[in-house]
Amino acid sequence: RLSAAPTGRGAWLLARTSARSRIRRRVAAPASLVRALDRLPCVLLPDARPYAGWFDGLGCRTLADLRGLPRAGLQRRCGPALLAALDRAYGDAIEPLAWMAVPPVFDVRLELPERVEYAEAVLFAARRLVVQLCGWLAARQLSLAAMTFDLEHERGRQAVPPTPLELAFAAPVRDEAHFMRLLGERLARVELPAAVIAVRLKATRVESVAPPADDLFPEPGGTKETRARLLELLVARLGADNVLRAAPVADYRPEAANRWLPLDAQAGKPAGGLPAAPPRPAWLLAEPLPLLMRGERPVFHTPLRMMSSPERIEAGWFDGQFAARDYHVAQDEAGACYWVFRERAGSEAEPHWFLHGLFG
């Protein structure tokens, strides 16, 4: 239903009337609005519906009847919201409006002066768009979380769809050099199906950020942003399948207790976090290294001295890789610590000791 009135609340009430009521839904003058609203049922006003029974007992059925009631008594009984809604509908009070916030949009297209046969040659034209993008981000205090760079090809009977390059960032950025470096790495891996006649850059996801502030004492080893940019550069250069991160696996065997996932893959975490475990080495050997025995003590460069009580691990019966081991933290004569285990499958007379990890 469509309606028009000098006030927004009045137009909304007129739109709620039925066609059989013969009430005009389009009025321009304030006096015509008053006459049209006076004929409407008072229960059309949402703030009046909780008191419909009380109004009916008073013989108050229209908005004109409602306006005729004493305002002081009406406010004590129904509260100020009802009178405020009534005044806004009739134009006796200003109606506050919430402005619609239009999301920021950056979508710029650039036609090339001539056909480009190689993706690397597009980088020069891309710089113009990236400079515009960085200026747009700085003016609005925004940073870019994801963007799309389209390479448009010939149109016509032999049209080829655009070649899209989607870039997502680990952390929102607005650095021109970083954008160009990632675009250059991605373009170097693209094989064009046809010549490029235009390029298009679109910001698909932006976020508000606080203006940068220089710290008095810079964080040693770089910031989170610099580490995130390094990972993004490695992904762009080597591919997402070649830049992986470790994720825990619910398995007691050290060699099976983690897996490798892409950086953006979501790995489930235990509800209560990872369980507490005895000390674990910083480096785990790919294969356990058998140790020689000297005087009933395992030897690695020098005889090893056990520094911890045994940690027994028995797992793997379900996949045919059964492991029954007693792990110890061992120390050599120079003070270096190692993670060693004794196979429980061997005999007590001839124990089999292995080196499995190195502590930092």
Q: Count the domains.
A: 3
Largest sheet descriptor: 6 strands, antiparallel
Please state the structural category: alpha+beta
Class of the largest domain in CATH?
Answer: Alpha Beta
InterPro entries: DNA/RNA_pol_sf, SulA_CellDiv_inhibitor
Keywords: DNA damage
Protein name: DNA polymerase Y family protein
Organism: Burkholderia latens
Overview of the structural elements:
It is a single chain. Strands 7, 11, 12, 13, 14 and 15 form a six-stranded antiparallel beta sheet that branches. The protein has helices at residues 8-15, 30-38, 52-58, 63-68, 71-78, 80-90, 122-139, 176-188, 224-238, and strands at 107-116, 142-152, 163-173, 196-208, 244-248, 258-262, 283-290, 292-294, 297-300, 302-303, 305-306, 311-315, 323-331, 337-343, 353-358. The chain is an alpha+beta fold and 360 residues long. It is built from nine helices and 15 strands.
List the helices and strands and how they pair.
Layout: H1 8-15, H2 30-38, H3 52-58, H4 63-68, H5 71-78, H6 80-90, E1 107-116, H7 122-139, E2 142-152, E3 163-173, H8 176-188, E4 196-208, H9 224-238, E5 244-248, E6 258-262, E7 283-290, E8 292-294, E9 297-300, E10 302-303, E11 305-306, E12 311-315, E13 323-331, E14 337-343, E15 353-358
Antiparallel strand pairs: 1-4, 2-3, 2-4, 5-6, 7-15, 8-9, 9-10, 11-13, 12-13, 13-14, 14-15
Helix pairs in contact: 1-6, 5-6, 7-8, 8-9
